[in-house]
Every structure is written in C-alpha cells, then in structure tokens.
C-alpha cells in the first residue's frame, strides 16, 4: 500500500514537472532545471552516504571532472555530438573515481572524510592554478552539443524547453536505475556493509570490491549531474569542485533524509528554495540558512523524508519520541 501511494505521488509530481514549461517563463525553467540537476547530484551522494555508509566530503570532484571534460573535448565554436561527449564525460568522472577510490577506500571514518576532501582540493587547484581549466575564470561552452542521430534530432538542446525536458528525463532515469539497483542483491550487500562490514566480510563478501563499485557508480552519476550543469549554464569553473560544493550536496542529503532517494530530491528542492528566498531577504542569507539547517537537524533527524511517518504516528495517537 505504501509503495502504491508513493508511486501515485511520484507520478503526480512528474506530471507537474512535465507541465511546468507551459506556464513558466525561461528564468524559472532554468532554475527548476538547475534544481533537478542538483537532485541527481544528491542522489549520487546518497548512494554512498545513505546506503553504503561512506561519508565523502569530496564528491564535487566528480561533478567538476565531467563538466570540465565536456568543455575541453567540445569544439570551441561548433556543436559536439551529444552521444559522444555525454558518455565520455561520465566515463571521465567514473575513471577518476576508480583511481581515487582504490586509494581512499583503504581508510575509514574521519580519515576517509579527510582524504576524499584532500583529493577534491587537489583537483580544484589543478584546474584553478593551471591553464588546463582556464584558471579562476573557467571555460565557456559556447555551443550545446547536437543530439542528432543519423540526421534525425530528437531534441534541440539550444532551446530552453528541450534542455529542461532532457534534464527531467535524466532525473527519472537515474531515480529508476538507483531504485532497481538498491532493491537488487548488490544493493542489499551495500546496506549490509553500512550496518556491519565485518559481519559481511565474515559471510564471504568482498566488501572492498562492493564499496569500490558503489564509489565509482556514485562518481559516474555525479559526473552526469556535472555534465548537465555545464550544458545548462554554458560555462565551467573550478568552484564546481570546491569543498563547499561538496558540503552543499551533503546538506541536501541530510535535509532530505539520509538513505532515501526521494528525500535526496526533496533536499535539493529545499536547499535551492532556501537559497533563493533568503538571498532576497538579506545579504547575510548564509547565516539564516545555516540556522534553519541546524534547526532541521535538531527537530527533523530523519529529514524531510521522515516527516510523513511522524505525522502518521501523531495522527494515530502513538506519540513522537523524536
């Protein structure tokens, strides 16, 4: 019954997303597309944090690697082929995650957090301080890729509505893929590793291999988000790889509810909504936003995903133990 209600709610929300371009100006279309891209980014991190128990503070590295990949391999004044640069960019992020994962997954706890942060900062300074990434100014993507297949173009990413629907399709695909993956034996092993890695190892599972696979997959999905971000805004800067970008996506996961894909999406929406609202209210909006996040952690430990169950218990008269 719960799955049926969740499916109905999801279909209603998807219908709203599909209908949005009919009533919204281009500015809000771009804002919503940005939010959906961040939702993909948040789901990729939730695969690590919520389901594998790996708290990474350098997840923005893969986001930035894919964005820089599409900017660097695309011709300067003509459209690249979408079906070539998309897999190439995602594979670049996955390859970087594989190399770094082989090193960082040998650490645990706070050491894992700090090592992932260190590698992400190395990537940041690589693109910030060298000509490879255009320095602090970054690189412009002057022309969006061409989606033509043998002369037939299913969409024109140069049009805001087409770009928006492409992002929506990517979000749905990632959500369905992760939902199926986490219900598979592979996903159950990841949850087991999060709960008790030593026990899973004693049962014969190669936990390092499973964690590495999850790390690389999360990096590839973060790369997909970075690729879409580069296409949407037409430029890439080193700030996409900075530590505060990793912190922002971690806050989205916490706000939405760790270990819940729908919560990760809701957390991205809540984060962007607070950014837009508070920045209009005051120039010190970061302080206001920080206070709200602290209150949310204190009073909503399960994030936004935990609100419906708590309301259900209250209505049923079971009380709320916090």
Quick recap of the structure?
This protein has helices spanning 2-19, 26-49, 60-73, 82-104, 109-128, 160-183, 185-202, 207-233, 243-256, 261-281, 285-299, 307-315; strands at 139-140, 235-236.
What does this structure look like?
- The protein has 322 residues and is an all-alpha fold.
- The chain has 12 helices and 2 strands; from the N terminus they run αααααβαααβαααα.
- The chain has helices at 2-19, 26-49, 60-73, 82-104, 109-128, 160-183, 185-202, 207-233, 243-256, 261-281, 285-299, 307-315; strands at residues 139-140, 235-236.
- The chain has a two-stranded antiparallel ribbon with strand order 1-2.
- It is globular, with a radius of gyration of 20 Å.
- It starts with a helix and ends in a 7-residue tail after the last helix.
- The model has no long low-confidence stretch (mean pLDDT 90).
Q: Which helices and strands, and how do they pair?
A:
Elements lengths: L1 H18 L6 H24 L10 H14 L8 H23 L4 H20 L10 E2 L19 H24 L1 H18 L4 H27 L1 E2 L6 H14 L4 H21 L3 H15 L7 H9 L7
Antiparallel strand pairs: 1-2
Secondary-structure element order, N to C: HHHHHEHHHEHHHH
Beta-strand percentage? under 5%
Cα gyration radius (Å) = 20 Å
Head-to-tail CA distance between termini: 25 Å
Q: Decide which structural class fits the backbone.
A: mainly alpha
Proportion in helices: over 70%
Please state the average pLDDT score.
90
Shape: globular
By DSSP (H or I, 4+ residues per run), the number of helices equals 12
């Amino acid at each position: 019954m719960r799955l049926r209600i969740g499916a109905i709610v999801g279909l209603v929300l998807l219908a709203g997303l599909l209908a949005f371009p009919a009533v919204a100006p281009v500015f809000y279309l771009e804002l919503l597309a940005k939010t959906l891209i961040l939702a993909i980014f948040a789901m990729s991190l939730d695969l690590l944090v919520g389901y594998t128990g790996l708290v990474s503070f350098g997840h923005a590295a893969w986001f930035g690697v894919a964005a820089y990949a599409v900017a660097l391999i695309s011709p300067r004044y003509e459209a690249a082929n979408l079906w070539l640069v998309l897999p190439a960019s995602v594979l670049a992020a996955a390859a970087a995650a594989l190399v770094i994962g082989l090193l960082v997954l040998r650490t645990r706890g706070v050491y894992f957090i700090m090592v992932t942060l260190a590698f992400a900062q190395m990537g940041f300074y690589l693109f910030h301080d060298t000509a490879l990434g255009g320095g602090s100014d970054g690189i412009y993507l002057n022309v969006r890729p061409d989606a033509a297949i043998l002369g037939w173009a299913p969409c024109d990413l140069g049009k805001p509505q087409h770009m928006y629907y492409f992002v929506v399709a990517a979000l749905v695909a990632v959500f369905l893929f992760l939902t199926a993956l986490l219900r598979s034996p592979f996903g159950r092993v990841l949850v087991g590793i999060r709960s008790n890695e030593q026990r899973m190892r004693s049962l014969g599972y190669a936990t390092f291999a499973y964690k590495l696979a999850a790390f690389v997959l999360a990096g590839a999905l973060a790369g997909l988000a970075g690729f879409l971000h580069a296409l949407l805004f037409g430029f890439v800067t080193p700030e996409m790889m900075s530590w505060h970008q990793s912190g922002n996506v971690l806050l989205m996961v916490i706000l939405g509810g760790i270990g819940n894909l729908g919560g990760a999406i809701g957390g991205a929406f809540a984060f962007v909504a607070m950014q837009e609202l508070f920045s209009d209210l005051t120039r010190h909006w970061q302080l206001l936003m920080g206070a709200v996040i602290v209150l949310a952690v204190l009073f909503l430990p399960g994030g936004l995903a935990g609100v419906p169950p708590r309301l259900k218990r209250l209505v049923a008269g079971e009380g709320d133990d916090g």
